[in-house]
C-alpha cells in the first residue's frame, strides 16, 4: 500500500481500525517518505532474506518487500494484525509473526524461514528496547550478514564510537566485538508521528567485517567491561575491584602487563586491551 507516510493516510487508518499509539511500546510512525526507501537500499537486502522487528503500519516493510526475496516481520502488538493485513495485502513475499523478538528463538526461525538464503536485519526499533534487542541479536551469533537499524542519535554516537575514546561505553565494546558499526544518515524528530523528543540516526552493523579479537573467556571479558563502565569515573582498578571483587593489586599488575597505568579508566582501553586484561585476570 502506497502513501503510508502521509499524515492523512495514517489518520484514516487510525480511525478505520480504532488504533491508538502506545507510549509503552514506543510507537512513533514515520511520515518522512524518503527514509524507508533509503534504509531498505542501504541494508543490502536485495534478492535475499530480511528480518524486520516492529513493522508498525508497514511503511518500511513495504520498501523491504520491493527489494528482498523474502521478508519476515516480527510485531509484538497484536492490535496491528488487521492493520498490517490491510496495508500489506498486495505484498506476496512477506510473513508477519506476532510475538516478542526478545523471546523468539531467532536462530531456529532463520533456519525454518530462510533455508540456504543469506539474511540481513533491518528495523525501526522501539527506542526503549534498542540496547537489549541489539545485544540479543549480536550475542546469539545468528547466521546474518548485517543489522541496519534506526536508533536515537545519541545512542548511534555511542554504538558507532571506537573503543578507547570518551564516547564509548560497555555496549560499544560489545558492538565492536561482533561487528563493524557505521552511521549511515540522520533522521530529524519531525519525521515521526507523534514526534519524539529526540533526533534519530540509521546505523549499520556489518557482522562480516568485524575486527578479529581473540579472548579465552568471552563471558568474563564482558563482565569485566560492564564493571569498568558501570563506574566509569573511577579508575579500572577501583571499578573492577568494586564490581567483581578482584584484588586491586592483581588488577594494577595486569594493567601494567598490557602497558597501562593502574590509574587507567575503562574509556581508555581498546577492545584488544580489554581482551588481554581479561585473559590475565581470569587466570
Radius of gyration: 21 Å
Low-confidence stretches: none
Q: What is the CATH topology assignment of the largest domain?
A: Rossmann fold
Task: Kindly estimate the percentage of residues that lie in beta strands according to DSSP.
Answer: 15-25%
Which CATH class of the largest domain?
Alpha Beta
Bin the helical content. Answer: 40-55%
Overall 3D geometry?
elongated
Structural class: alpha/beta
Describe the structure.
The structure is a single chain. This protein is of the alpha/beta class. The chain has 2 domains: 7-206, 3-Layer(aba) Sandwich (Rossmann fold), CATH 3.40.50; 218-282, Helicase, Ruva Protein, domain 3, CATH 1.10.8.100. The chain has 12 helices and 9 strands. It has helices at 7-17, 35-43, 59-67, 81-87, 106-113, 130-139, 153-159, 170-178, 218-230, 236-244, 248-257, 271-282, and strands at 29-30, 49-53, 70-75, 94-98, 119-124, 146-152, 180-187, 192-193, 200-206. The strands form 2 sheets. The chain has a 7-stranded mixed β-sheet with strand order 4-3-2-5-6-9-7. A two-stranded antiparallel sheet has the order 1-8. Strand 3, helix 4 and strand 4 form a beta-alpha-beta unit. Helix 9 (218-230) crosses helix 12. The longest helix has 13 residues, at 218-230. It is elongated, with a radius of gyration of 21 Å. The chain starts with 6 loop residues before the first helix and ends with a helix.
How would you briefly describe this protein structure?
The protein has twelve helices and nine strands. It starts with 6 loop residues before the first helix and ends with a helix.
